[in-house]
Amino acid sequence: MHELPITESILKIVLKHARANSVHKVMTVHLRIGKLSDLEDEWIQRYFDYLSKGTLAEEAKLKIERTPVIVRCNACSESYEADVKNLNDLTCTACGGKEYTLISGREYYIKNMEVQ
Amino acid sequence: MENVRLIEVKEDILSDNIKLAGEVRERLRGTQTMLLNLMSSPGSGKTSLILQTVEGLAGKVRFGVIEADIDSTVDAEKVTARGIPAIQLRTGGFCHLDATMVTQGIDAMDVSELDLVIIENVGNLVCPAEFDTGAHKNIMILSVPEGDDKPLKYPLMFSICDLLLINKIDYLSLSDFDMSALRERALALNPRLTILEVSCKTGAGIEGWIDWLNGEVETFKNMEE
Ligand SMILES: Nc1nc2c(ncn2[C@@H]2O[C@H](COP(=O)(O)OP(=O)(O)OP(=O)(O)O)[C@@H](O)[C@H]2O)c(=O)[nH]1
Ligand SMILES: [Mg+2]
Ligand SMILES: [Zn+2]
């Protein structure tokens, strides 16, 4: 259920660009989704298939690349990649600091799309 | 067959909402109304907390409530029965509120007469964390029966909140909920998180919550000067 609003927004942007470029058919959409997102690739595709019926993006494949969670150490400002499974126990690779600020890892970014 | 070509899109899907949320925040700064987004799983005690807040703020802070519910008005009815203005937004199938829906809510209220608006978001720990509502402060409730492992399962929710209320502490003696483990996990995700323990049933800790809320409303007003 949580995939629905996100997928709807993805489709809206895809169709906007498809129309602006006088596309006949959208073949593939390349997305970058942060690893912090709880949404499953498979379900995003299923909802996309359902919502895109009868549109220019019908049958388009979503190619999802998961982007890492990057945090910045509050003590020394060093940025490092965090293990999503282990966010409760992160230690700065530079200074051993425990407190951090999230820099990226929660985005839903549409990179580009292959169209005809 | 036509050639396949590549179109650059370069858009983040949340950007429209982020922009609108910024407008909501600015607009409510203008009327000196603090917007507070209250989130939790279903049944953790959002409505109970709002009802517990009525008395504590009486005569000090004028507040209204935006209720989000998939398809009912029970929560809004409970709140209005206590003399607090409430707007019910039916979210239909949506599992969260976004800035567009919140705008509808504040359009329907006389916010210039209010110091505080509390949003009771849809009960769920996933989507509400993704969508900025335009709130100045984000709050979550975790109730004891849900377990102390929730920061591990819903890291985003814990990392975006300013305050975490642990509700239903009257259940503590009946469960293996480990308060210090919970605190450690939540603070590791979000070191600036304030954590308060309450029971909306017995009233334990509610004073601390009211103090926090009064303090935030005051700070918000003074920021404007
Ligand atoms: N024992 C105990 N029960 C509580 C406490 N707080 C709330 N409850 C009960 O928990 C149930 C759910 O509380 P609500 O306030 O309706 O929860 P909610 O988060 O608004 O629920 P939804 O709007 O459905 O997501 C009710 O039966 C409350 O009486 C508490 O501190 N202790
Ligand atoms: Mg409720
Ligand atoms: Zn460091």
Q: Can you describe what's shown?
A:
The complex is a heterodimer of chains A (116) and B (225). The model of chain A has no long low-confidence stretch (mean pLDDT 89). Chain A has one domain (3-115): 2-Layer Sandwich (hypothetical protein PF0899 fold), CATH 3.30.2320. Chain A is an alpha+beta fold. In chain A, helix 1 (3-20) packs across helix 2 (41-51). Chain A is 25% helix and 33% strand. Chain A has helices at residues 3-20, 41-51, and strands spanning 26-34, 61-67, 69-73, 79-82, 100-104, 108-115. In chain B, helix 1 packs parallel to helix 4 and helix 2 crosses helix 9. In chain B, strands 4-3-5-2-6-7-8 form a 7-stranded parallel sheet, sandwiched between helices. The longest helix of chain B is centred in the C-terminal third of the chain and has 19 residues, at 206-224. In chain B, strand 3, helix 3 (74-80) and strand 4 form a beta-alpha-beta unit. Chain B has helices at 15-30, 46-57, 74-80, 99-107, 127-130, 150-153, 155-160, 179-189, 206-224, and strands at 5-12, 34-40, 63-69, 86-90, 116-120, 137-143, 163-167, 194-197. Chain B has one domain (9-217): P-loop containing nucleotide triphosphate hydrolases (Rossmann fold). The mean pLDDT of chain B is 92. The interface between A and B is large, with 39 and 36 residues. The complex binds guanosine-5'-triphosphate, magnesium ion (MG) and zinc ion. Zinc ion is lined by residues 73, 75-76, 78, 92, 94-95, 97 of chain A. The site of guanosine-5'-triphosphate has 17 residues of chain B, from helix 2.
